[in-house]
TrEMBL record:
Membrane topology recorded in Swiss-Prot or TrEMBL: Single-pass type I membrane protein
Gene3D superfamilies: Ribonuclease Inhibitor
Compartments, record wording: Membrane
Keywords for this protein: Glycoprotein, Kinase, Leucine-rich repeat, Membrane, Repeat, Signal, Transferase, Transmembrane, Transmembrane helix
Major location category of this protein: membrane
Alphabetical list of InterPro entries matching this protein: DNA_repair-toleration, Leu-rich_rpt, LRR_dom_sf, LRR_N_plant-typ
MF (Gene Ontology): kinase activity
Entry GO CC: membrane
SUPFAM superfamilies: L domain-like
Domain of life, source organism: Eukaryota
Residue intervals passing through the bilayer: none
Family: Belongs to the RLP family.
Protein name: Serine-threonine protein kinase
Length: 184
């Protein structure tokens, strides 16, 4: 009997799916990593009393009501990217261009396997472009221009078979353009 109960309990725990509440806690983590909000957009707008689907910069899918697009471009935010951002598992489009995000990109972002569009252009990200960028198997557009990325361009970028646009100008790369880019 207790074994059965235990089994039932385990099932309840493990079938608790990520949902809109997960997206809310993810975005609250991001909010807490935004250290400067020039136009004071988030303080009142990103409020837990309304659905994240109505938060400025967020778009949800009509079927699952999960965040599918995030556009924080030109909102003049300063901050870093928390590892929790990798939990936005329905995200297809991420646009952070022309902001003041800095630091490095957490590995957990590799979980965003639905991403088609990623724009981190004109920020202050540093370190190397992560080699796991090829986890974004559906990626069609990648903009990393005007940042402080350095080191070599990872050869894994050549695995992005759906890629149509790539913009890397104004960074501090060294070495050669990987021969795998010829696969694109
Ligand atoms: C947040 O901003 C969005 C987009 O500008 C707006 O539609 C919404 O009403 C705002 N919500 C609150 C609570 O201010
Ligand atoms: C994000 O918003 C900006 C400013 O409104 C707009 O120009 C840009 O096209 C949007 N990005 C995406 C991916 O829709
Ligand atoms: C989100 O991701 C982090 C690690 O990246 C994890 O520890 C956490 O449990 C996740 N949160 C939710 C609500 O799924
Ligand atoms: C991705 O690219 C690397 C380096 O070019 C290669 O070694 C690796 O096998 C590729 N992975 C996949 C899944 O195609």
């Amino acid at each position: 009997m207790s074994l059965l109960l235990f089994a039932a309990f385990r099932v309840t725990l493990s079938t608790n799916p990520p949902n809109l509440y997960t997206d809310q806690s993810t975005l609250l983590a991001l909010k807490s990593h935004i250290t400067h909000d020039l136009h004071n957009l988030l303080a009142t707008n990103w409020s837990t009393s309304i659905s994240v689907c109505n938060w400025v910069g967020e778009t949800c899918g009509s079927r699952h009501h999960r965040v599918t697009a995030m556009n924080l471009s030109t909102m003049d935010f300063t901050g870093t990217i928390p590892s929790q951002l990798g939990n936005l598992s329905f995200l297809a489009s991420l646009d952070f261009r022309h902001s003041s995000f800095h630091g490095s990109l957490p590995t957990e972002l590799a979980n965003l396997h639905r991403l088609k569009y990623l724009n981190f252009g004109s920020n202050s990200f540093r370190r190397e472009i992560p080699s796991w960028f090829d986890y974004f198997a559906k990626l069609q557009g990648l903009w990393l221009y005007m940042n402080n990325f350095n080191g070599v361009i990872p050869s894994t970028l050549g695995n992005l078979s759906k890629l149509e646009t790539l913009s890397l100008y104004d960074n501090n790369f060294k070495g050669q353009i990987p021969i795998t880019m010829g696969n694109l």
